[in-house]
Amino acid sequence: MAGRVVGVRALGRGLSVLDWIRFALLATGLICVVTGLLPAADAQQSLRRIAPMLLFLGSVIVLAELTKEAGVFDVIAARMARAGRGDYTVLFFLCVAFAALTTICLNLDTTAVLLTPVMLALAPKARIAALPLAMTTVWLANTASLLLPVSNLTNLLAADRVRLDPPAFAARMWVPQLMSLAATMVFLWVFYWRRGARGADRYEPPEPPAVPDRVLFTTMGLACLLFIATILAGVEIGVASTGAAMLAVIVFVWRDRAKLTWSLFPWQLLVFVTGLFLVVPTLQRYGLNELMTSLIGADDGPLGSYRAAAAGAGLSNLLNNLPAYVAGEAVVPAGNHDQLLALLVGVNVGPVITPWASLATLLWFEWCRRRGVRVPLRMFMLTGAGLAVVGLAAGVAGLLIV
User: Fold this and answer.
1) CA distances from 100 to 142, 208, 227 (A)
2) How far apart are CA 322 and CA 273, in angstroms?
3) Looking at residue 102, what is its pLDDT?
4) Are 366 and 117 contacting, i.e. CB atoms less than 8 angstroms apart?
5) Distance of alpha carbon 364 from alpha carbon 373, whole angstroms
């Protein structure tokens, strides 16, 4: 008995503040179902909707974690810095491309969880200021998440609602994505990357990192390419990510079984998302729908689109972008596809003001804290507010042009 108590206490000490918040959210959702605040039928419908997304989320994080363990991200980051040859302008464009492609192809949480520590580790090796690299990852984790359904969990929900497969979704969102990327690059350069902000003329290219296992390195790179190719070919997203993750696990069983631990499985994200999809439907039954209807309206024209985007961005920075999308989607009329996609722009591009606006930003702050990178909160919020306004306006304009 005493051993069990000690084990429980040890487990409690191993949980972070964010973990306790996730469990509290799930417990709140379960209480809503048990007490009847959320009818069981509504809870089942909500969970059935997110089941394929949970499969995708769990498998793609495993894929990304094992890709990192194989050294793929480290090698790309180091070669990118060496390709810049000490020129900050070249490095800026390479970092933007790296972070944007990671977000677009593997989702924003991968950028926050895996790319952030890689970039922060690169900073001292190349004697580069850490803040410009850190801000590049967090902003692009959010603003580069518009192009594909896999880029963001909100995209999966929106693509399902408007019945768009990955190629059709990309055809609809490529201009908004380019516009939001352009706005992000301008703000990154002006506030964090220009000579006066970064504090140096040139940087020192790092030495290339050693690849411990060439087979793992090559196979994991191919697994990521396979995943991207299959989703663009129209394979169901959960199936594509699960297949690539299974390939990764099989190769690690063969080459490095010790890396296959339970910590690879992103139970924290699954607990958070499940709790969220029980709590938000409950709030919708008790006033949230009426509030969102008054904010968004029912106009599918330009004004209605901007209202939806602004409401999504505002609620994201008050709560979180995922419940903001779910609450907004519930009140957008079924045929208002422009308005719904504008809401998507708002909840993807807008959550760059507050630290809790997206799960990716929360994860990013945790990595910065662990690495001892000081993030001036006032500057973070002010520059983020400017980017949110400009990026949202540009993204919705791009949507309406398409």
Assistant:
1) 9, 23, 17
2) 9
3) 87
4) no
5) 11
Task: Residue 246: name the closest of 267, 268, 230 by CA.
Answer: 230
AA letter at 23:
F
Half-sphere exposure of 163 (CA within 13 A, CB side): 3
Q: How far is CA 63 from the centre of its chain?
A: 15
What tokens appear for 372 in the block?
A: 């001892």
Q: How far is CA 87 from CA 80, 140, 194, 377, 380, in A?
A: 11, 21, 12, 28, 25
Q: Residue 281 has what pLDDT?
A: 86
Q: Which of 179, 188, 189 is nearest to 144 (CA)?
A: 179
What is the reported pLDDT for 6? 45
Q: Which of 111, 78, 110, 83 has the alpha carbon at shortest distance from 217?
A: 78
Residue among 231, 17, 272 nearest 107 (CA): 231
What are the mean pLDDT values of the chain's consecutive 10-residue runs (402 residues total)?
A: 47 65 88 92 85 80 84 82 87 92 84 78 81 93 92 88 90 95 97 85 82 89 85 77 90 88 79 84 84 85 93 89 87 90 95 87 77 86 96 95 82
Structure tokens that stand for 93 in this block:
């464009």
Name the pTM for this structure: 0.76
State the residue for tokens 């800026």.
92
Tokens of 195: 């000579």
Which residue type does 55 have? Answer: L
The Cα 72–Cα 79 span in angstroms is 11
Residue (of 340, 337, 364, 335) closest to 352 by Cα position: 364
Any idea which residue has 């006066």 for tokens?
A: 196
